[in-house]
Predict the structure.
Amino acid sequence: MVRIEAEALRALADRIAGPMAQAFEHAVNLMDACRGRVVVTGMGKSGIIARKIAATLSSIGTPALFMHPVDAVHGDLGMVVRGDVVLALSASGETEEILRLLATIKRLQVPVISMTGDPICAHQSNGKLSTLAEAAEVALDCSVDREACSLGLAPTASTTTMLALGDALAVALSEKRGFKEEDFANLHPGGKLGKKLARVEALMHNGDALPRVSAETRMPDVIYEMSRKKLGITTVVEGEKLLGVISDGDLRRLLEKRGKDALDLTAGECMTRDPKTISPHEFAATALAIMEEKKITSLIVVDEDWKLRGVVHLHDLWGTEMV
């Protein structure tokens, strides 16, 4: 049964790359030109797929919503306004609940993109189209040779094809609109994806939690600041500008080399002058990659002119579920 669905997807891919390429591009262009929302509708199993397509479109930058066709004929059709695009799913293309919406949608001059089981690409010259496909500005071919159901009745391969075609439209549209990783992060503030795509500035220690000393600070006071802030590190600054950093490892190596004489030194004499830094606008995933590459547990957060903004520690990334 899985092979039947896989074969249906292969056939769909061939159509998108071949005889349906122009229609597919037209559909993407219609949605790209849309200044409202993409309203996705479908009944039964097609309705379930329609909900998922609407969710995918919204998650990658195209405002979209699902409209149940039964609710629509009882008042919800008011959610469709000029400037929208309707994406209608129906395996038969004759779903009564959807066809009853067409007159109002046409009156609003809202373009319709259909996804039906009409074998449009196989019968381009003389095939009779369903009512929905005939009424649509763009009719997309979701036909399958057979369903995966042993009775050939339950929507299986056909709904899989609709889902894949909806995903293809959404991804093509996001690429056309230049949707970027940071845009995706902004639309996914919660859950594991949101945590992985969190910005460094949302995770870093700053303000009173940020360890900092001046270049003239004596080492006993440096050690006290490191112990008090509990990050295993302190920054060395002049005003707000970062000069260097002193870590627990630096301190141990210094004591091994100089013994108690190390306590007579200043932070400026002991600091590392070229610490690893990161911008506050970078992703948490980028910070983790740098820490893993350099085998360090902290990164100093600075802006373009080396003004100190904070410190992000490996422990801060644990909550992102990346560590």
Observations:
- The chain has a mean pLDDT of 88.
- The longest helix spans residues 157-176.
